[in-house]
């Protein structure tokens, strides 16, 4: 058991070191595409695991997993922003470019792009309010109710023990289960708030890419205002879709597992 814990610590330490390196070292576009695809695959795989989990406490490491996934997605977002702002029209990330081309297809000038950008911003804002905010609310309420019910549950277990209905080993096991339940909901509350903050930062990054990219395109890349808008507004939306979709899925993951436990 000790060796397993040691190996787990090494894996987590190595993962954190890799993430920090990704934050410092500029990534080529091909590696960025690989990381974006890997992030989406892992989030979808996590969602499948949660859907197959019968009780929330059966996946006790979920809060830590949510934090790691969120941090990993944030690092990818920082890397993509760096590439987009430094390369501009020469940005060659295929996944973001593919989504951006769908946004720019059939546009009738800068006014049409601005309208599409505003519509996309409204959609993201609605998703943030409906999914992320409600997930935080559900998790916080479950944590509060679980903590409030803890003394009564412990008293009921002790009553069973005093009446001879259960043994001392069962008493200790049930008390440990109750404590793990409280610890799980408390950790999930913090993890959900961290995910929510990341979604808000991602929404802010979309605006930074659009406005900052236009300024860079006009003053440093010698583009016209119209050309700069056609370059950076679709890229900002494409990056927003690619980066915020996994983050919103993580919020849905927490909401699904907590709601299942509440039934």
Give a written overview of the molecule.
This protein is mainly α and 263 residues long. It has one domain. Helices cover 86% and strands 0% of the residues. It has 7 helices and no strands. Helix 3 runs antiparallel to helix 7. The N terminus is likely disordered.
β-sheet strand percentage: under 5%
Mean pLDDT: 77
- Shape descriptor reads elongated
Specify the number of helices: 7
| Main beta sheet | none
Q: Which H/E pattern describes the elements?
A: HHHHHHH
Number of domains: 1
Q: Would you identify the regions where 5 or more consecutive residues have pLDDT less than 50?
A: 1-6
Count of DSSP strands: 0
User: How far apart lie the N and C ends?
Assistant: 34 Å
| Category by helix and strand content | mainly alpha
Instruction: Provide the helix percentage.
Output: over 70%
Radius of gyration: 23 Å
What is the gist of this entry?
By secondary structure, this protein is mostly helical. The protein has helices spanning 2-24, 29-51, 62-87, 94-104, 110-162, 168-219, 225-262. It is elongated.
Descriptors:
86% helix; mainly alpha; single chain
